[in-house]
Amino acid sequence: MSGGASGIGEAAVRKFVGEGAKVVIADVNTSLGERLSAELGAQAEFVRLDVADPQAWSGAVDAVVAHAGGLNVLVNSAGIQIGGVIDEVTDEDWQRVMGVNLNGTFFGCRAAFPEIRRAGGAIVNISSSGVLQGYQQYPAYSAAKAGVIALTQSIAAYCRNGGYPVRCNAILPGGIETPMVHDAIRREFGLDPTSEMAAPMLAALGRPSQVADTVAYLASDEASFVNGQSLLVDGASTFTVPAASLTQSVSAE
């Protein structure tokens, strides 16, 4: 479980452990990862992992096999978000976002694939609803998450054509209340996420546990014929016209 120390990754770790799975929490945040592992007990183990480092992935896969006796499910949930419209985003920020969000997902899939193919199982990649909309302030993030979908489809096609017992699907979360979103609220709106002014904004967001439920479904035998799909989990927010826009349209008529 990359990015398993917080946000959607943490919620998925808790979901899997609650259902009896052995989980390796792989994250660059050592303090949060070790704390979560200690809380969850013997079923969870923490491994520090920088997903942008392909060599580190080999060690992480080895840790999973040693902890669980094999590898059936990979969840790529590590991600970062750095703002910057197209005429302002720097080379460094572009490469950093691509390195974590797209390259990190690729490195994880490549490193884990032989073990999952051997045992049979599933890969679940976390993309974003941002690939369906114009997130003007996040061109690098949107591009990377779109790449995750293409990667997911390619792996799924390879497994189907090769007869390999591996399914690969992607989840496109909408606005979810995670530390990354809290940071965005501070950065873009200048608000404390715990403040009363931010409360309506947070109330409209989904919860990490709601995405974790979908991760668990895609990893389970209940999704045995679901492969190469990009599942939108956003409470219909992506395709809903804001109420203010509807009011303005009616007034104009």
From TrEMBL:
Gene3D superfamilies: NAD(P)-binding Rossmann-like Domain
Top-level taxon of origin: Bacteria
InterPro entries documented for this protein: NAD(P)-bd_dom_sf, Sc_DH/Rdtase_CS, SDR_fam
Name of the molecule in the record: SDR family oxidoreductase
Coiled coil: none
Pfam families (UniProt xref): adh_short_C2
Family: Belongs to the short-chain dehydrogenases/reductases (SDR) family.
GO terms assigned for molecular function: oxidoreductase activity
Keyword Transferase (UniProt): no
Key word ATP-binding present: no
Keyword set, alphabetical order: Oxidoreductase
